[in-house]
Specification:
Elements: E1 2-6, H1 13-16, E2 24-27, H2 29-36, H3 46-57, E3 63-67, H4 75-88, E4 92-96, H5 116-129, E5 134-139, H6 141-145, H7 148-160, E6 165-168, H8 177-188, E7 193-195, H9 201-205, E8 215-218, H10 221-231, H11 235-240, H12 245-254, E9 261-267, H13 281-288, E10 294-302, E11 315-320, H14 326-331, E12 341-346, H15 351-355, E13 361-365, E14 368-376, H16 377-386, H17 393-399, E15 404-407
Parallel strand pairs: 1-2, 1-8, 2-3, 3-4, 4-5, 5-6, 6-7, 7-8, 9-10, 9-12, 10-11, 13-15
Antiparallel strand pairs: 12-14, 13-14
Length: about 400
């Protein structure tokens, strides 16, 4: 069985995204109403759900399922809302068989339901308007009729109207015998079935529904946990709890799009025997093989260097005549910097430098410069233009207070 977990807000992806038990996210009208401080009666605007889905899709490729209540019982409005949700990144909507305004299913005696005809007309217009969107019919009739056959018959009619599956909701208590009978009847006909086991979570944990339901929507569990934990606190107790601000800062900073760097390899200085490091195919290849990590690779060599590299729009060879020094050689590559950041590396760096090439600032192996510098491109352009061309990378970085990172 697949589990779709209620998402209180996007920060929860930090903890749920890599959990193998989380197949996707459930955006719930109950907990969204609680989070926003509204009653759970469709007062929260539908645009809220579009916004949540759009932001969530930036952080996850997992399935997103949205609780859309009964979509105001108006087919044209329902189709419009469904289309916007789909275009924002929603995979699935769950449509309830209630009448507007909503009464929560956990109080089934207060519910007023649509007729099966009304419900199916709504489902049909949504599905025919947005055929790519998975539409699940949330069948509330069992809780009100207590009739297995009637509930199963309405569920099948919903499928004929275009629904891709059904959720049979049972929210009154933990006596699930009628629910199990209904699900068994539908599974025998190959119907995709789902449950929302708020009142009978223990039974799901114990495996009672493994052969009866394809998926379980774990609604309200995250928000319930948050409320429970916070309800135990006071200002006094909160002040005694160590505040780990850095973890929040790190998470927020992780949302910054990384983009790509340009890798510039300095090899314009000939060795004692008059050859160039980058003339060695193996040496050049270890840098060009890094292309998957960079937007482009620029190899800076002497004018007479014999270098066998296949140049293209991502791999460039720049030849420098009579290099005055490292900064002079580096300046020849400036016209090829089209990224926000740049990595500058010596052609003769050792394995330590190759293995830590993405380290911020100047990379040191203990107290030894490892021949790698990462810096913002605009900062590098400014530095190159302002220092003596005979200067070394270390001298240029020291003058401009570039950050150093020491790895022992």
């Amino acid at each position: 069985m697949k589990y779709y977990v209620e998402l209180p807000e996007l920060w929860a992806t930090e903890f749920l995204e890599n959990d193998p038990d989380c197949a996707g996210y459930w955006v719930s009208s109950l907990t969204q109403s609680w989070q926003k401080g509204y009653p759970d009666n469709c007062t929260v605007p539908w645009t809220n759900y579009v916004d949540v889905v759009r932001r969530l899709r930036l952080h996850s490729d997992k399935k997103i399922i949205v609780d859309v209540d009964m979509l105001y019982n108006e087919p044209s409005i329902a189709a419009t809302v469904a289309r916007e949700l789909y275009e924002a990144g929603c995979n699935t909507i769950v449509v309830e068989s209630k009448r507007f305004p909503k009464v929560n299913s956990l109080t089934p005696d207060s519910m007023v339901l649509s007729t099966p005809e009304e419900f199916c007309r709504l489902l049909n217009k949504v599905k025919t308007t947005v055929p790519e969107l998975e539409v699940i019919a949330r069948n509330e009739y069992l809780a009100t009729t207590k009739d297995v056959d009637v509930t199963a018959r309405i569920a099948k009619r919903a499928l004929h109207a275009g629904a891709d599956g059904v959720v049979i909701h049972w929210g009154g208590d933990s006596n699930t015998e009628l629910l199990k009978k209904t699900l068994k009847k539908l599974k025998a006909d190959g119907v995709q079935t789902g449950i929302i086991p708020t009142k009978y979570l223990d039974q799901v944990v114990d495996g009672d529904f493994e052969d009866l339901a394809d998926f379980s929507i774990l609604g309200n569990i995250c928000s319930s946990y948050i409320r429970h934990i916070f309800s135990q606190q006071s200002v006094s107790s909160l002040l005694k709890i160590p505040c780990e601000f850095k973890s929040i800062l790190d998470r927020v900073n992780s949302h910054e799009p990384a983009g790509h760097n340009t890798l510039v390899v300095l090899g314009a200085k000939a060795t004692k025997d008059g050859s160039y490091m980058l003339s060695n195919k193996d040496v050049a290849k270890q840098f060009t093989d890094k292309l998957s990590d960079y937007y482009s690779v620029v190899l800076v060599v002497g004018e007479d260097a014999d270098i066998s590299v296949d140049e293209n729009d991502k791999i460039h060879v720049v030849r420098v005549a009579d290099s005055l020094g490292e900064v002079h050689s580096l300046s020849s590559a400036m016209e090829l910097l089209n990224t926000e950041s740049v990595t500058v590396a010596y052609a003769d760096i050792e394995d330590f430098g190759m293995n830590n090439m993405g380290t911020n600032g100047l990379l040191f192996d203990g107290d030894v410069y490892a021949g790698v510098m990462n810096v913002a491109s605009d900062v590098l352009l400014s530095m190159v233009a302002s220092v003596d061309p005979t200067a070394s990378i270390l001298e240029m970085a020291s003058i401009n207070n570039v950050k150093s990172t020491v790895i022992n």
